[in-house]
Amino acid sequence: MKFRKFGKILLIGALSVGAIFGVASCVVSYTVGYLYVTGTVTVQPAGNGLITGYKIDHDTGMLTPINGLPISSGGANPVRAVLTSGSRFLYVLNRGVTAAGSANCTSADPCENSNITEFSVGGNGILAPQKTYTNIQGVNPFRIILDSSGSYLLVLSHDAADNYDTTYNAGTNGCTLALGTGVKTCGDITVFKIDPTTGYLSVVINSQVTAVNGVQLTYFPVPANPVDIVMNGNFALTLTEGTAGGSFPYAGATAVWPYAYASNTGQLTLTQNSAQPLGITGGTAILNANSVIYVLDNQPISTTFNNAGEVEPVQSASQLEPYTMGADGALNAEPGGTVPDDPTLANPIQLLLEHTGKWLYVANQGNNALGQNAQSGLAGYDLYANPYQLAFLLGEPFGSGAGPQCIVEDPSNQFIYTANYNSSNVNGYFVDQNSGALKPLQGVAAQYPLQGPATWCLTDGRTG
Fold first, then answer.
1. Would 61 disulfide with which of 265, 273, 284, 415, CB 3.0-4.6 Å?
2. Measured distance CA(4)–CA(408) in Å, rounded
3. Rounded to 5 degrees, what are φ and ψ at 107?
4. What SS3 state is found at 289?
5. pLDDT, tens digit (0-9, with 9 covering 90-100), for 230-284
């Protein structure tokens, strides 16, 4: 077949247009997942909770609001939230407020009306409230996690209900029965079984400890003043023995308490007779990262006198401690593994392991004592070469909003987001896939406003 000159020009033009559209079609913007943020409303009564939701753009990481959100979290002071396997249901732990309406709940002035609110997750990320559960067995609940099977929820409370029994009896006190003579107060774990069809929750009875008249405990005691909890295979590890009498967020943990965990029944079984000291003084968080257990140790800020006789704060000595775990759940510190937090940051609160296991990030809330100038921000570590002896990433620390409360990776593993308590917003970053460095979206620290302080965040990769 022969073409005239004019026909050749048209053909070349058509091919050129096709090539252009072919290139353009390689960049198709679509929602890769959703980001949910729990928090409180600044202008409403203390602790009024809500859930804000954003669609995550696959190409840019930019966020757009989900229609119909924010909505009420179902209670006051939402503190944590989890998604079930398959992202069918979302559960929000609402901590409640004191009798006087304060969000500053302590053992002496505990929270009231705490609950778990269940939401179904629909198309386009829409959330619909389903049921509210008020049968948490402890007081001042503050952590909720999903087990590896996706069949059970574990809720950690700072105080067991038995702590408030003024007529103490060793034969009926659950803390004593489970943890030994002389233990009058403790924290506790409530285990809930998840109905796979409805998502409804039911309390798992403790088959290990019998009180009186053959009645089993409805919770699993842990040593007093727990701070955080994590699952690692067939173990549940509670970071505990924190600062007594403190208010949320609880801190100052010094030990870990391991329970053997049965994923087919939800039962927790003691593996040792006492909590294991970790040689730290300010534990705030614990993370399972490829079977390496990392503990954040937020050392207290101390003071000294300068040459003029004036009081000055001493630089924060916060650090990250790596451990291996033994067959009985005991943690073994790695020699030379202690890594300092970035000296320009302060008050580390949460850790994130990115999906390849090469980089670890620590969210630091910033200065809060003695006029110290340490800032909010993210420290970054390279653990690919040696997960027990970490090195700072080039370019860290990475900026954040004021008081990051949580840090998450998006479902496409391209972006990281922080939700911030003090600045009531969300920040987004690209993850450099070669170096692990975090770069603000579109060259600036993209900030998405919230209606009040953020308390937790999580991402959902199911978009259908």
1. 415
2. 60
3. -65, -35
4. strand
5. 999 899 999 999 888 788 889 999 999 999 999 999 999 988 888 999 999 899 9
